[in-house]
Specification:
By secondary structure, this protein is of the alpha+beta class. The protein has helices at 55-62, 82-93; strands at 2-3, 9-11, 26-27, 36-37, 41-42. The chain has two domains: 1-46, no CATH class; 54-93, no CATH class. The protein is 21% helix and 12% strand. Strands 3-1-2-4-5 form a five-stranded mixed β-sheet, with no helix packed on it. The protein starts with a strand and ends with a helix. It binds zinc ion (ZN). The site of zinc ion has 7 residues, from loops.
Length: 95
């Protein structure tokens, strides 16, 4: 993912410049509070640092109050295939 240094808007890696400001985008490795993704989703704050197990994820993913909401889950990626494994685990929690 990349962000504009002027407006803090996030763009996919395929973008090289901000469409609004025309400046080169910075590559980022971590989502930071205040960032806006696709001009729609603002990162408000980071929730926790892991180690909470799967039950809280199961509750969030199945809570009807959040059915309309998009969220980004940052999960540990240390080895090739970790992202795919993490997505499979999250999908397995959905009832
Ligand atoms: Zn910009």
């Amino acid at each position: 993912m990349k962000t504009c240094p002027q407006c803090n808007t996030g763009y996919p890696d395929s973008h090289t410049t901000c469409p609004t400001h025309g400046v080169p985008l910075n590559e980022i490795r971590d989502l930071k509070p205040g960032m806006v993704i696709h001009q729609s989703y603002r990162i408000v704050r980071k929730l926790g640092q892991g180690k909470m197990g799967l039950e809280p994820f199961r509750r969030l993913l199945n809570d009807k109050r959040f059915a309309h909401a998009a969220f980004i889950a940052e999960t540990p990626v240390e080895e090739p295939g970790d992202e795919e494994r993490n997505v499979k685990v999250l999908l397995s929690l959905v009832k």
